[in-house]
Amino acid sequence: MHADLEKLEKTGKITSSLAKKLDQLSPGRYCHHKEWGTGKVVKWSLPKKALMIDFEAKPKHVMALDLAFKSLTLLTENHFLVQRYEKLESLKKMSKDNPVELIRVTLEGNNNQLKPEELEKNLKGSVIPAKDWKQWWDNVRAKLYSEVEFSMPTRKGEFIRLRREKISYSQAVIDDYGNHRDLKDKVRVVDSAKMDNMLQDVEGCLTLVKLLDHDVRIAGSAALQQGLELAVIRDNIIEALSQRINGDNDNVRSVEIANKPLAELLQENQAALPEVIGSIAPVHQKNIYNRFPVAFGENWMEEALRVFDKGGTRAVGEVAKFIKEQKQSKLLLEHLHQEVINQTLQADGLIWICRNRTGEAKKIFGLEVGFAILALIDQDYMNDGPTRAQRLKNLVMEDGDLVRDFIKGVALGEVRQFAKTLYGSAAFPELDRKALVARMMSIYPELQDIILKSTDNDEVRGRRQTLFVSWESLNKRKEEYEELVNVKIPQNKHNKSVFRAEGDLRENAGYQDAKEVERVLNRRRAELEHDLEVAQGTDFKGADTSVVSMGTIVSLQPESGDPVDYTILGAWDSDPERHVVSYLSQAGAQLIGHKVGDEVAFVPINEERKRKFTVLGIKAVNP
Description:
This protein is α+β, with helices and mostly antiparallel strands and 623 residues long. The longest helix is centred in the C-terminal third of the chain and has 30 residues, at 471-500. Helix 30 runs antiparallel to helix 31 (509-534).
């Protein structure tokens, strides 16, 4: 205890408990202020109840004693912030010469654990210059995954921990794996582990393989993605072990035989595979596709094509590579060509064709692909909002050569029809439509009249562009616009300014993401402004029931099966589950104008091929 306090305690001027409390802020002690940083008590005046503290950002600052106890955090001498206060230059040198040791020292001075964002607060701007932090931390973090002493987080909110005991790398992975119950976290642990480091401990690897196989078995259909990922990682470890010991180890062979094979897992969950595989990292997808021939035999190509059609962005490119490696590209192109003709290919498949139009997809790329893209974008737009086709729409606008490549070598008559379809699309704002047609005019100047005629005839132009929508969907668009303008755009602008302040914009991922979001939000704002300008609300009363029209329910008899009802409503009123379609959708456009007894062919909801129907009856939605 400080000598001044001992005297006061002995003379009875202060109690023993008060003396202990005051001793925590006696000269030589350390503390931390949230704004001024770490400080050291220089001297005090107990009669005046005041302290002088040397803070990092406020030297020799005098504080009232009672305020100090309220606003300061008391630090022990071994706390990292105290080390940073006393040995800053030494720590700066360590950050360059031995950065891993700096992380170790920082954790030791914080009870052996810190969240990444807390670690950043300890080092950024003081030990590490703020402008250098991201690159420095990215390099050091990669090294930490190879260091057994560090237990690294698998998700946001978890700690970087310093292990107290010395263990092998494999045992460290096993410990981290066992510390998590969520299979997603377990996948992250083993996925980030270094294979070469694990192979130094064969017995440890075998133990890990058994743990992985256990979780593969219990994952089931509810956690199919994680089950597949764990099975792939398990098999990779087994293969690496076998190669390391030349396949002579009986333990490896016995474990492999006991495993639940990946091919069996694929067979058991065949129906759910396309959606699940699309969420798996590409590096693991390849291992899964390699098991398709074993799992599905002669039908493996059919399953691969299902993944291409429904697997999403991450799956399309990887499964296409696998099909090419199996020398079956011809079958893939035949399949895609048929889907393009039927206009049933989804956005990711169309994007793949466009991006590979000078390579693998060259034989099927052309104007039919362009029509399929416009059909999907328009259908998506009429289904109330840019969802599935937004990336496709961005591609059309941002790839300056795409629309020109669609029409190269095509007869003017066909090109004119494509240009008219594009220019008549409500899914694109007027300026975008004009820009796209202008690109085509560089090849066919004759297309200029499409724009000129539209501009000269306001009445025709108004009729073509007016969108009839329900009052409910119109109000939803207005609410979306208000939120976009008053909430989302201002918030992103704020985020962008915050990231800009961090400096080094080329390496600033947050700033780049904010710029991308800004571009998407501004485009959506332009689309909504265009929508609201041309939309006309209606309650669908007084619909003409002599023919199928907007505001009617039409009963249809297919060539086989039970009758089905389709409701034709406004441009933004689609509800596929209730068979409600927009009057501008493909199905709606095909049905409108037909009478009772007429035959009509279109692609039904949730199907991929056209079917013929006979119109049985027509009635009004709101008589």
